[in-house]
């Protein structure tokens, strides 16, 4: 895992995360709430979402685009963090939703996000999901293939409706990101090849139940430089001109998400970078624009709080914590690096040495960190895994019969449980045993 440069020191991790503070008595605090208080009250592992952090980021992203006077609407990528409290807050901040399933559509609607502010992306939408999108009259369906476009036309037609759609284009741009989160290269499964998209645009004008409103793109995730955004959006701009030269009407461009954050020591771009690139590449096309940030908004809002179950002396020295890959899957799935901070006040001044931080699940990939410089943690000590707000709780499973962890929201010295810990009894209660395999003499 990313062993090129030394890991940032604990003090550096803290200094670059303004929502975290340390207190000489209470140790690590998130938005003014001591983490040991939450652990004592609700147990561990526990997800903590910072409402203030989310609001601040939502506002600063908006401000970056407003400074450019761009006609932009904002759609939060629900898949990164789908809690009702999160969606409700983002709705209040003026955000709509970018969804990838019927389930996410229901979540967005339940949080009060109007259908007119919902866009539906995703490479495999079922008939039922498309029907629901037409029924709810959402802002647009980003279709990912010729086949899907025709299927949507047929479904909308059978309902006597007209569906607004955008063509999701694969611009064949390398996002320079991890292979498993790249989406805009020719071999990736997403989108319509860009040459095909231009011809499809004129073809689609013959479809009775589709109104093509524009193009959509999503290049990848955790993108840290301007260049791939610039290349991708330039391609889109060229396509818009080409489509218009054939008489096509392009009203809107959906720019996707993908803006990266600092997990370790990356130089993460500010949203002003993205706003600038969009202004320069798409600003003079006279189209409505939209952006779909997920990770940039949600990752820094989350902490996964965990307690040390056991330490295992040796080389390497293992610290076994009570969170695992079933809770936070990213390290096992993408080799991702998450900052780990101790919670007790004395640990911030103690000497550090390398340790492997692992979960208790019976898989070798259940490892959160290798050779991580940490103080001498003991059984019972608390640790906080940082920047786990995106693609964290949403990816949890119950592997090893480990129920979904508690979720808590903090906000300016307040905190509240926003999802109770699931119980093993609930897991079992959802299962049934067919009569024919029940013991005969039971
Ligand atoms: C996942 C996704 C996003 C959000 O990506 P982030 O990297 O989290 O910003 C936006 N749009 C689409 C279509 C996506 O699939």
Low-confidence stretches: none
Q: From the alpha carbons, calculate the radius of gyration and give it in angstroms.
A: 23 Å
Can you tell me the CATH topology of the largest domain? TIM Barrel
Largest sheet: 9 strands, mixed
Mean pLDDT across every amino acid position: 94
Ligand catalogue? pyridoxal-5'-phosphate
Work out the number of β strands. 21
Beta-strand level of the residues, as a percent range? 15-25%
Apparent shape: globular
| CATH H-level superfamily of the largest domain | Alanine racemase
Which CATH C-level class of the largest domain is it? Alpha Beta
Total domain count: 2
The name of the CATH architecture of the largest domain is Alpha-Beta Barrel
* Spatial gap, N to C terminus: 52 Å
Number of helices: 13
Structural class: alpha/beta
Query: What is the helix fraction of residues, given as a range?
Result: 25-40%
Active site: 362
Family: Belongs to the Orn/Lys/Arg decarboxylase class-II family. LysA subfamily.
Binding site for pyridoxal 5'-phosphate: 258, 292-295, 391
GO molecular function: diaminopimelate decarboxylase activity; pyridoxal phosphate binding
